[in-house]
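for the writeup, i need someone to sanity check this before i put it in the appendix. the sequnce is what the collaborator sent (i think, or maybe the updated version? ugh). structure was predicted straight from it, no edits. if anything looks off just tell me and ill rerun, i have time this weekend
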Amino acid sequence: MRILHAADIHLDSPLSGLIARAGGQVGDLTTATRRAFTAMIDYALEAGVDLVLIAGDLYDGDWRDFSTGLFFLSQMARLERQGIRVAVVQGNHDAENRMTRSLRWPPTVKVFRSDRAETWIPEGLEVAIHGRSFPRRDVTEDLSAGYPPPVAGLFNIGLLHTAADGRLGHTPYAPCDVPTLVGKGYDYWALGHVHGRAILHERPWVVFPGNLQARHVNEPGAKGATLLTIDGGEVTALEALAFDVLRWVRLEVDLGGCASPQQAYGRIETALAEALTQAEGRALAVRLTLSGATAVHDLLAGDPERTTAECLALTERAGGEVWLEKVAVATTPPRQDGAPAADELFAVIARILETPEERAVLRADLEQALTRVPPTIRQAAGLTPLDEQALAGLLAAAEATLRRRLLDSPE
């Protein structure tokens, strides 16, 4: 028996940080979660899996219209024609009380109730699935405590949306601890909610498959589902499968020693090409950080709009589909002697920037100024929120512009 375990699909969720830059290609981004889900269903059909598990957050929230539900049911119809059953629990994003629209489920899809845990034994399969959906978003009790005992003679699966013990940094919904799950006597715990793949215990297995498609830069790397193979009532193989169609990466390019813009941009172009190769044919979403002591620091930091445009132009030459989510300039100027008055001025600036009270005043002034900037433009510029990283970038750009004006740094 082969079972495909997925979670956190978030159908029709937007990809944060990219939509504003997408222009005419916005459709490629808004359909990313659908295309990843279709890829998973394609695999299930081709591989002939026996069962699909979805451990919560199938949807990103209430449907904007019925198209989201119709898309899901169209994929379920494909599985139904091949006799593949599907078990679903609702999570915090698609909790029962958050969904105002619904469509009838096909008979091959089991959605677990939210008022209590229950057991489903699909006909013809030697497996018992125990689960419970979220009745509301903010579930703070341990749902696993009410799960039924294992069914003798069957492979027992606990289907649960949970933050587990919270050590993986997610909102602590339906908290539980691994020893308690292990002590339940099930053979496999199919978990959801944590977006990074993690195996919390082996034999019995306690597994987070991660989400199916990364939605922002804090979800880097391959994304997909977990395939488990069962023989003689034991898990004989566990395999991570990638189904994502767009992969996120934080890319830092060291420009240390670059003496000219040509050198700097050549190094950036090489790094983008290498990252695209590592994406295994998928589209790539990049947060680019430029670092190192370089003679072109003032050029890069002093004109961030041009720097971003130059990097965007490089993505067009990278040889594949590359989306640039943000460019952060963290370079520094090479050590050099300037005019005594300028040296004194920059020393004063450095002292101001290193003083928490002065930085707080600057932040407050900038926040006030940013209230006059349209939210979409502020978000596209990476200034929502104005956190320490964004503030540091703005101050570095201002210092570099001043340095260029005073010292007439060459391009």
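The chain has twelve helices and 15 strands. The chain has two domains: 2-242, 246-407.
thx in advance!!
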